[in-house]
Amino acid sequence: MSRDDVRRYLIAYDISDDVRRTNVAKKLESYGDRVQYSVFIVDTRPAKLLRLRTQLIHLIDQSTDSILFCNLGTLRDNQRQSLDVIGRSRTITDHGPAIL
Amino acid sequence: MSRDDVRRYLIAYDISDDVRRTNVAKKLESYGDRVQYSVFIVDTRPAKLLRLRTQLIHLIDQSTDSILFCNLGTLRDNQRQSLDVIGRSRTITDHGPAIL
């Protein structure tokens, strides 16, 4: 997987139902790294992100739940500079977040 | 305020204490727009973002709370393309999100 193909996505969810929220969190954990309780960072190619997106659509109730996708650009763009945390932090590396 | 100066920031918080969480939400509401329960979009100049950041530091307990800042670049970069929601959505415009 070339670094040119890989993009960094921030994915945040807003789901009140415990079961659906747990299912979404488990799915996201298999693709990326948790940086906050309801925020994940996923480094992947756009095609794989599309697959994840389709899987997530089937896990949520679209009338009440919300999942936000934010495309932060290619890893080559040195996107580390675009993420910053105050308080309890987990460091984002080129290979995803590392829990400190 | 020139569009060249203004940057779009995604700000997400992870705060378990009700009082601190409410205070942070109120502060963020005065700077930007809520796109999820704990996610805001703030369009502002870097200097003003720094001021907001300092104010937020004083509102949280840095040993337990977390606030993530994600710099999405200048509005001129047409960052609308970088944000996408499935499920219950609020549309992000050039002038911030509009609740649908």
Automatic annotation (TrEMBL), chains A, B:
InterPro entries in UniProt: CRISPR_associated_Cas2 (IPR021127), Virulence_VapD/CRISPR_Cas2 (IPR019199)
SUPFAM superfamilies, A to Z: TTP0101/SSO1404-like
Keywords attached to this entry: Antiviral defense, Endonuclease, Hydrolase, Magnesium, Metal-binding, Nuclease
Listed Pfam families: CRISPR_Cas2
Cofactor: Mg(2+)
Top-rank lineage group of the source organism: Bacteria
Gene3D superfamilies linked: 3.30.70.240
Molecular functions per Gene Ontology: endonuclease activity
Residues where Mg(2+) binds: 14
EC number(s) on file: 3.1.-.-
HAMAP family named among the record's database cross-references: Cas2
Subunit-structure text: Homodimer, forms a heterotetramer with a Cas1 homodimer.
Job of this protein: CRISPR (clustered regularly interspaced short palindromic repeat), is an adaptive immune system that provides protection against mobile genetic elements (viruses, transposable elements and conjugative plasmids). CRISPR clusters contain sequences complementary to antecedent mobile elements and target invading nucleic acids. CRISPR clusters are transcribed and processed into CRISPR RNA (crRNA). Functions as a ssRNA-specific endoribonuclease. Involved in the integration of spacer DNA into the CRISPR cassette.
Recorded family membership: Belongs to the CRISPR-associated endoribonuclease Cas2 protein family.
Protein name: CRISPR-associated endoribonuclease Cas2
Species, as recorded: Phytohabitans maris
Record lineage: Bacteria, Bacillati, Actinomycetota, Actinomycetes, Micromonosporales
Gene assigned in the entry: cas2
